[in-house]
DNA sequence: GTCTATATGGCGATAGAC
DNA sequence: GTCTATCGCCATATAGAC
C-alpha cells in the first residue's frame, strides 16, 4: 500500500481510538510506518491529515449504513436490520466520539463531516419512516423527524453506556428496548 | 474560596470542556488562579486531581437527577420531568463525554465513577418503570431494564447529535420522539 | 518522495527557597 | 502553603540534504 494511503488509514484508526487531541503526528507516523518528512510532504500537517481521515470515515460510515437501508423489506425490517447489525460496540462510533473532541468541534472544517454524517442518517431514517406511514405500517400521527432522531440517539447513547460499563450489555438492552417501543406504534 | 476548592472546580469545568487528554495542569492552575507548587502540594498530580473532580461531578449529577426522580407523580410524569428538565445541551454530558477520553477509559480509577453513574441512572429509571408497572401505568410485558437503558441512551445520544449539529434541535427532537413512543406503552 | 537535523514551545513533574 | 527554578520529554513543525 502507498504511503499516503497508510497515513490516512492509520489516522482514521488513531482518531477512532484516541480522538484528535489525543493523537500526535509522531504516533501517526509510527502506525503508518512513514517518516516525518514523508508525512509533511503529503500533508500540510496534523489538521489536514485529520480532515482527510474524517471525511474518509464519514463516507465509509454512510456506505455501511446505506447497505441496511437500501434492502427491500418493510420500514420496520430495514430499521431493525440497521439497529441490530454487527457493531464493534466497545470502540464506540467513530463519528460520534469526535463530538467530544474540543479541537474537532472548534474547527469548522473538521466538524463539517461529522455534522453532515448525522444529518444524513437522521434524514435517511425519516424517509424510511415516512415510507412506512405511506404504506400503512405506522400511524399517520407518528412524527418521522422526531422518531428518526430518537433512533439515531439510542445508537449513539448505547455506545456511551456500553463504553462506560465496559460491556456490550447496556447497548444491547437499549436497542432491544427501542425495538419494542417501535413495535408499539406499528399497526 | 480556598485554593483546593478552586482547583477541583476548575478541573471539573475543564474536564467537561476539553476532556482529560485535552486538559493540562497549567490550564488548571490558570483557571484556578493557583500556582504550580500550590497544585502539587494539594494533589499528587493531574490524575489524582481528575479523580477528585470526576467523583465530585458524578455526585452532583446523581443529586440533580434524583431531584426529578424523587418528586411525587406518576412514573411517566417523573420520567418526563427528568427528560425535559433544563439542560446545557451543547456542552454535552460531563460523564458521557468522558467515555470518549482514551486515558479515562484506560484508567480503572478514573473510569469507575463514570461507570457507577450510568449504572445508577439505569437502575433508578428501571425502579421507576417497575413502580409504573405495579400500579398499572404500564403493561406487564414492558421490560424495565431495557426501557431504562433506552431512555438513558436517548439522552446521551441526544447530546451527541446536538453537538454534531451545533444546535439543540436534534436533542429536543429525540426527547420528544421518545416521550411519544413511551406514551404508546402507557395504559 | 523520504531522510535527518534542528527549533520552539508546552507537558507533567520535582526541588528547594520563602 | 505558595513561589520560582529547573528538568527531561514530547508535540508540531521547518529546513535542507539525498
Automatic annotation (TrEMBL), chains A, B:
Residues 24-43 bind DNA. Gene3D superfamilies: Tetracycline Repressor, domain 2. It holds the Pfam family TetR_N. The keyword Membrane does not apply. Keywords: DNA-binding, Transcription, Transcription regulation. The keyword DNA-binding applies. Residues 1-61 form the HTH tetR-type domain. This is TetR/AcrR family transcriptional regulator.
